[in-house]
Amino acid sequence: MGLRPRKPISGVLLLNKPVGITSNAALQKAKWLLNAKKAGHTGTLDPFADGLLPLCFGEATKFSAYLLDADKHYRAVLQLGVTTSTGDPEGDVLGTCKITVDGADVAAVLPRFMGEIEQVPPMHSALKHQGRPLYEYARAGINIERPARRVHIRELRLLECAPPRVVLDVQCSAGTYIRTLAQDIGAALGCGAHLTSLTRTAAGGFSLDHAHTLADLEALDASQRQALLLPADCLVAHLPAVQLGAADAEALCQGRSIAHADAPPGLARMYTTPHTFIGLANAEAGRLVPHRLIATQPAARHTQA
């Protein structure tokens, strides 16, 4: 008898990315360790940064955008008095300035950066211009005009202040550049600043406290690694859940809309017996319209008791 085909890997891994590697390198290593075919991450961390990097595998990649767009939480360490070309420790030093500010001065400027603010994305970023990331232009010495973008800083707390070192706790909307925030705070203080280290401590409803390192994965066997994966629906846990019968679930999985008067309007998680997640549907005008479904068909053709 031939070997049974291995079940495709699907789920979410909360990875604690180390300093010194790219997010993609961390993803590829985890993908290899899990022997997964399809994988993606939910928001890049720069090589100098560490912390929570949720990785999606298999069918879970279909729902990664919901975490990509979620709020993030960071612990940021700034060095006052030194500006760099990238706003972080990987850039060239552009200038130095004598520091005359203290903790009270730092605390006084932080409220300026609370709430909705505008940020000009850094040249050393992965944002695209005419199909090329901005960092490629920056490396070639070309500056591209970038329009300011609105972001939301929901929390900005001063954890430590012993100039030139300042440590901040930042909770912000997706798309916020903490490097830019550090530079702007330095400019407001009149001495300049850059980010020396950055740790992502939370993303959406996930915490770094529950993340695993690549070393953790390497120390486990294949089944133990797979046991660390969270189910795909953890990415959309903020949406309401709807339980469907076998016939309705099968119709939805075939791409057909179904009548359902009780579903709240908007997107919702769809489940079938026995509480098997089958994807998302949009509730409108008393019907459920398929939105994004997993490839697995519901195994619920039997008569329910």
Tell me about this structure.
The protein is of the alpha+beta class and 305 residues long. It has 3 domains: 11-69 and 206-233, Pseudouridine synthase (2-Layer Sandwich), CATH 3.30.2350; 72-203, Pseudouridine synthase; 239-293, Archaeosine Trna-guanine Transglycosylase, Chain: A, domain 4 (Roll). Helices cover 20% and strands 35% of the residues. It has 8 helices and 18 strands. The strands form 4 sheets. Strands 1, 2, 3, 4, 7, 10, 11, 12 and 13 form a 9-stranded mixed sheet that branches. The protein has a 5-stranded mixed sheet with strand order 14-16-17-18-15. Strands 5-6 form a two-stranded antiparallel sheet. Strand 5 (82-84) and strand 6 form a beta hairpin. The longest helix has 12 residues, at 23-34. The two termini are 37 Å apart. Residues 1-5 and 297-305 have low confidence and may be disordered.
Question: What keywords describe this structure?
Answer:
305 residues, alpha+beta, Pseudouridine synthase, Archaeosine Trna-guanine Transglycosylase, Chain: A, domain 4, 3 domains, nine-stranded mixed sheet, five-stranded mixed sheet, disordered N terminus
